[in-house]
Amino acid sequence: MSGPLVLAIETSCDETGVAIVSSGRRIASNQVATQIALHAVTGGIVPEVAARQQLRWIVPTVQAAMAEANVDWDELDAVAVTYGPGLIGSLLVGVSVAKALAMVHDLPLVGINHIEGHIYANWLTDAPVADPLPAEPPFPLLCLVVSGGHTQLVLMQDHGRYRLLGQTVDDAAGEAFDKVGRLLGLPYPGGPAISEAAEGATAATRFPRARTAGAYDFSFSGLKTAVLREVAGYRDRGDPIPIDGLAAAFEEAVVDALATKTVAAADEHGVAAVAMGGGVAANRSLRSVLRQRLDALGLPLLVPPPAWCTDNGAMIGAAAGFRFLAGDRAGPALEAIPNLSLAWTEA
Question: Over the stretch 263-294, which tens digit does the pLDDT of each residue have?
């Protein structure tokens, strides 16, 4: 197993993810303790509850990852951890445990930005060790990071070189899915529930696409309000609410907004490929529409498997492999930063 071999921890929101990744590419293990069933009761994440559960599961998840990879501590080259952005309580769990593990086992510590982790999920493979590694994503690479807390278009010129082209000015796409799911009486999380309801359904209306000051910025707050008004109208009239039709119309609006601006940015900046990351990247409609529109430009679309789109330790291990080789190190003073941004460059 080639190095660097990194144990990576991801606790930026509600999941507890621990993985061991070799050379920033090959997954040796990837364990996730999920809280979906727990937060389904409240219809959304309760930060304090999430952090408490992570305190409970972080050590068993580390142990499970080590066992799955069948490695000892003296075989590891580093410990990596998400230190932002995210929920402060959850971040503190991962950062504290990672610092302790690095200190006890005398290993270098690498701090990773959660957004960068989602991007680097496109470098991962679970191919057997005997198989050659697949080709890496080409540069320049346009990255659409779209999740419950983030919606960003990032131009990646090389490893560690990013330029922010646009981002949400209000709700993230995944957040909008969850909120609209609640409006329609669908179970949490809203994204998969809306996609299931929308599959095969005819859109009941056409919701507006927001205009933003920035060419590649996104806005989903107005769309959420439009759904609220539509639902209220049906209730006021005493008519049955077409859940599937409204879900289809909402998903169509979100997908159209994301795909339209992504394709426009890819065309303007002459990228070699487009990559997606984040939980909403698992949306089948988004993948299909974006791939179809990029085909017209002759551009490939790179999308990780659904399990690597949602929060997990493997994506942090992928980013950490390249950061480690670049000489990046964090010390015992590493702090959790809930509003952390990538180090944008204009190059």
Answer: 999 999 999 999 999 999 999 999 999 999 99
How far apart are the C-alpha atoms of 44 and 139, rounded to whole Å? Answer: 37
Q: Most distant CA pair in the chain: distance in Å?
A: 68
Going by C-alpha positions, the residue among 131, 115, 114, 134 that lies closest to residue 123 is 134
Q: What is the pTM of this model?
A: 0.96
pLDDT at 346: 56
Residue 143, beta-bridge partner list = 154, 275
User: Is the distance from CB of 194 to CB of 227 less than 8 angstroms?
Assistant: no
Domains of the chain: 5-124+307-325 (3.30.420.40), 141-302 (3.30.420.40)
DSSP string, 202-269: PPSS-------SSTT-B--HHHHHHHHHHHHHHHHHTPPP-HHHHHHHHHHHHHHHHHHHHHHHHHHH
Which letter, b or e, does each residue of 116-129 get, where b requires 16 or more Cβ atoms within 10 Å of its Cβ? bbbbbbbbbeeeee
CB of 146 within 8 A of CB of 281?
yes
Q: How far apart are alpha carbons 274 and 294 in whole angstroms?
A: 8
Report phi then psi at 146, rounded to 5.
-140, 115
pLDDT exceeding 90 applies to what percent of the chain? 94
Q: CA 107 to CA 163: how far, in whole Å?
A: 31
- Both tokens of 49, joined, read 């509850």
- Residues 6 or more apart from 62 whose CB is under 8 A from it? 7, 9, 18, 97, 101
Question: Sign of torsion, CA 278 275 150 23?
Answer: positive
Per-residue burial over 145-174, b = 16 or more CB atoms within 10 Å of its CB, e = otherwise: bbbbbbbbbbbbbebeebbbbbbbebbbbb
DSSP symbol at 180: H
Residue 93, classed as helix, strand or coil, is: helix
